[in-house]
Design the sequence.
C-alpha cells in the first residue's frame, strides 16, 4: 500500500525555536492518530502537510504532491485548524459556502455542499445565524464542516474535539468513523489519547519535534517490555499478598499504602503476573477487591516513551 504522506528529514524552525527536527515518517491511507503533548510539534507538522508553511529542511510529500503553494493538492485536502478562524460577520452557511467557493465551485454547488456538511455536524438549525453568536463547540463543528464539505481524499484535523460537549464529541467521533469507512483518510491530532484510540489503532507519537514511535497501539505498547509494568491492587489482607508476590521472580517491587490497603506492584512480565495471581490470592486468603493495570492504556505508553 502506497503511503499518503512521506516525510524525510523534515525540519521546521522559527528563529532559534525548533518546531520539527529531522522527522522521518510514512503514513498509510485510513485513520491515523497524531499524538503528543502540547508543544510536541503536531500543529507545525499539520501546517506543513496542508502547505501553510514551507519546510526549513528535508522533504515532504502529501498524496504524491509537494504541499507548499500547490493548488492541485489543496482541492484534495480538508483542514480543520486548531485556531478559531471564522468570519464573525457571516452566517455558518455563508462561511462554509465561501470556503467552497475558494475551491472554484460555482455558488449553487458550493451552497449545496455547505448545507449538507452543516447538517452532518447537526447545525442545520443554526446555519443561518451569524457565527459571532455561536458557542465554542458550534464554531468547532463549523470548522469541521468546511473541512469535509468538498469530499476531499484526506482530512487533517488539529485538536478537533476541543470545546465540544460530550454529546457533540460523540457525534463528531461517529462522523469521523463514517468518513473513514467511506474511504476518506484522516490525520487527527489530540492529546486526549483515549479518544484517538477509540477511532483507530494506528498512532504516530512525536515529542520535541521528533518521531518517538509509530504503528498499531499494541506494537507500540510492546516497548514497555523493557520497563516494569505497573499494577494496582486493593486487598483485605495486603501484607500477606505483598510478601507472596515478592517471591515471584518477575515481580520487581511491591509497595503498600498503609491508609488504604492499596498495593502498587511492578512486574517485568505482566502475563506471568496475571497467571500467578489467582493461586497466590487463594493461598494467602488476601481477598482481592480490585485490580487495575494502568500501563494497559495508550496514556501509559506515551508517558513511558516521553519519560
Sequence:
Amino acid at each position: 500500500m502506497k503511503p499518503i504522506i512521506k516525510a524525510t528529514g523534515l525540519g521546521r524552525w522559527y528563529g532559534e525555536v525548533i518546531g520539527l527536527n529531522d522527522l522521518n515518517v510514512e503514513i498509510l491511507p485510513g485513520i491515523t492518530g497524531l499524538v503528543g503533548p502540547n508543544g510536541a510539534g503536531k500543529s507545525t507538522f499539520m501546517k506543513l502537510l496542508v502547505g501553510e508553511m514551507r519546510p526549513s529542511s528535508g522533504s515532504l510529500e502529501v498524496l504524491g504532491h509537494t504541499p507548499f503553494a500547490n493548488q492541485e493538492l489543496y482541492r484534495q485536502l480538508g483542514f480543520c485548524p486548531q485556531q478559531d478562524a471564522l468570519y464573525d460577520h457571516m452566517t455558518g452557511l455563508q462561511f462554509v459556502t465561501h470556503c467552497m467557493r475558494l475551491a472554484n465551485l460555482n455558488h449553487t454547488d458550493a451552497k449545496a455542499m455547505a448545507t449538507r456538511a452543516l447538517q452532518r455536524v447537526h447545525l442545520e438549525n443554526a446555519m443561518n445565524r451569524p457565527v459571532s453568536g455561536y458557542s465554542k463547540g458550534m464554531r468547532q463543528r463549523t470548522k469541521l464542516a468546511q473541512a469535509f464539505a468538498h469530499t476531499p481524499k484526506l482530512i487533517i484535523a488539529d485538536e478537533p474535539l476541543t470545546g465540544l460537549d460530550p454529546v457533540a464529541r460523540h457525534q463528531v467521533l461517529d462522523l469521523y468513523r463514517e468518513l473513514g469507512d467511506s474511504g476518506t483518510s484522516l490525520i487527527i491530532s489530540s492529546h486526549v489519547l483515549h479518544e484517538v484510540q477509540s477511532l483507530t489503532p494506528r498512532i504516530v507519537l512525536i515529542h520535541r519535534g521528533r518521531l518517538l514511535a509509530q504503528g498499531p497501539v499494541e506494537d507500540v505498547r510492546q516497548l514497555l517490555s523493557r520497563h516494569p509494568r505497573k499494577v494496582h491492587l486493593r486487598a483485605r489482607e495486603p501484607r500477606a499478598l505483598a510478601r507472596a508476590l515478592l517471591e515471584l521472580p518477575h515481580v520487581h517491587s511491591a509497595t503498600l499504602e498503609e491508609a488504604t490497603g492499596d498495593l502498587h506492584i511492578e512486574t517485568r512480565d505482566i502475563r506471568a503476573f496475571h497467571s500467578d495471581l489467582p493461586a497466590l490470592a487463594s493461598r494467602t486468603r488476601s481477598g482481592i477487591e480490585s485490580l487495575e493495570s494502568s500501563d494497559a492504556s495508550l496514556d501509559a505508553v506515551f508517558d513511558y516513551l516521553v519519560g
